[in-house]
Every structure is written in C-alpha cells, then in structure tokens.
Amino acid sequence: MESPIVQNELPVSDSQDLQLTQATPDECAKIWTNTSASWRDSLTVPVYLQEQLRLSDVPLARKGGMTTWILVEKDFPPGHRRICCSCESFLKRSLMSTDGKVEEVIVHGVASVFCPLDYRRRGYAARHMKEVAKALRNWQSHQARVVGSVLYSDIGKKYYAKFGWKPNAGNWHMEFPPMKTPKSSIAREIVEDDLGGLCRRDEAIIRNAMAKPTDGAKKVVTIFPDLDHMLWHIRKEDFATEQLFGQRPRAKGAIAGLPGHQAWAIWTHRYYMQPNAESADNVLYILRLVVEGDDSANKPSSSRKSRFQGEKQERQVESLIAVIQCAQAEAAEWQLNHVKLWEPTSWVQDVITKSNIGHRIVEREEDSVASCLWYDEEDEAPVWINNEHYAWC
User: Fold this and answer.
1) What is the tens place of the pLDDT at every residue in 299-323?
2) Which residues are CB-neighbours of 73 under 8 A, at least 6 positions away?
3) Are 107 and 118 in contact (CB under 8 A)?
4) 65 with 368: CB under 8 angstroms?
C-alpha cells in the first residue's frame, strides 16, 4: 500500500528521483479507479473498470499495442510507488508519402493523460509529457520508423503545444441532428462481418492516392483506418449499449451504390451520460467516410480540387446523402443527440452544403483538439491527412 501523502515528502518535478516507466497490471487498475470519475461516461464504476480491462485486450491494444506510462519515484517498487502522472500510448500503423514515395511508419497516439488531484499544480504533468515525448521517439521502432505522435487535447490548444504537440491545421467537424425517418432504400446496413473487407478496400484507395506527388505538400502522413481502430471504438460501444439497453447495435455503418462507385460510413455510438438525462450530449460519431472515386480524398485540404462529372456525380451524390441520412436515423433510433463527421473532403462538403440536409460547422477550440508532434525537426513537417474520428484515442 502507498504511504499517506505528506506534502513536503513529494519530490519536485525536476527531481532526478522521478522516472518514466511502465505500469504493472495492478497499477493500471489503480489508474482506472482514479480516472473513473472523469471518464466513465454513462457507466457505473465497476462496469467502467471491466470496460477498461476489456479494452486493454482488443486488437489495437493487444501484444504491446497499448502502453501505460507512469511518472513515479524510482527508488520505490511497484505497489509502493506513488503515480504522479500517467497516460497511455497506442501504436498506430501509418503511411507517409514523400513526393509520392510511400513508406509504412509508426505514429503513436497519446491518450488518457491524468494527474491525481493531490499531485496537481506541482509540474508533474509537464515533466511527464516531456519524458513521454522523448520515450516515444524510438518506442517500438524495431517494427517501423517512428515519425511522430498525436494526441487529442480536451484543455485547449496551448498546454500540449508547450511540449511539442501543436494543434493540427484542421480541427472541425460537421454536426447533423438525429432524424426519425426510415433509412434510405438504396442503402444497406454495414454489419461487423463487413468491416474487414471495407477497411482493406479503403487502405488500397489510400495507398493508390498517396503514391502520387501532392501539390502543396512535400510530405503527407495518414493513420490507417484499419479494422483494429474500428473495433476499439465498437468494443467501447458494446459496454455502454449493453448496460443501457441490454443489447448491441447491429448496424456498424451504412453503404450505398454499386461496387467501384460506393459511399460508406462506419460509425460508433458514444454515450457520455444516460440518454434520458436533461443535458444529454451523446453522439453518433462517423469514424470513417469513404466515397469511391472522390479525387479530393486522401489529400491535404489545400490540394483538394477534383470533382465528379455528369451521371457519375449524380449517382455518388445520391449514395452519399443516403448514407448520411442512415446515420441520422440510427442516431434517432439509439437516442443519440448528434451525428458528427470530422473533416470531410471538399467534395463531400460541397454536396452536403448544396443539399437540404440540416447541419452546422463546429470548430473545436477546447475539446478533441488533434495535435501533432513530429520528430524530424530539421526537415519539413508532414501534413496530417484524414483527421477523422477513427484515429481518436
């Protein structure tokens, strides 16, 4: 057991007695207990602890995919050392293109930064983040080159920027209301068994697009929207919906159109609070939206210029609108307050803006601010594309 906290016994934040290391399973359980008040959403504490244990063994986290980092006093053994600050990192399989030359790389996702209340305002979080930035530079680099790390700040744009994680050029989304209407007849549900094939198709489209030089950016990088990312979100969804409704949603998204000309969205249901709460702000997040043939996709926003033409344009517009309407119907059916689509392509923006689908544009200034730290300081920093919700952690 830890000793009772005595203020003057705590080391200063720049002390050599502090070190960054990895948490034991028992220490992870302690961290989850401490964070439950902030991050359990609609779950009870016991169920939240079960959820965290399960999420630590989904494919994205399994076999070293997730690492829990802690700042502790180095002279104390596990179980007796005070955890001054903690966070998680996720290995994210990524692709970098340099003038059209592609390379599989690693981008680490940093999540769940937490400093216990008794240890705040002592500089521990700052020390922790500086140490994490250094540790991740070569972490798991035996698998591929590590080019950077990303995090999603819920405390604005300034704090993490001090340690190298600068806000991404884009941090905005489209927000749609739920709609109690029948789902479009030209679209069908995506079920879990469909996800692997769709993710592989998406990856092939990305690789093809990034194998061509991009106007306005020498280097671009994307985190692959692979099955592991989708299942991480969906397994979190499972816990909430089973607790709230006694069942899991069947639909993991919607797809419309003929192969080669299809539009599809993969989504997740997120319950931050009970659906019947007066101030409920629950969300159907579109994790990834794909429109086959959209030449403005998988490119920096500054070079998104291509458009569909003629009959093909009409078919793709019809398919895209059908998919968005399915998402709105799904949100209504599952008592969600909003549908959110992060940073769609310029073509998708144009279609939605010209349609009669009600929506608003939201600039994220304080929460879920995607921020990047790139490690090649002497070279041109890459442009991060596909900043969509699937990569959030």
Assistant:
1) 998 665 655 555 668 889 999 999 9
2) 11, 17, 18, 19, 81, 82, 84
3) no
4) no
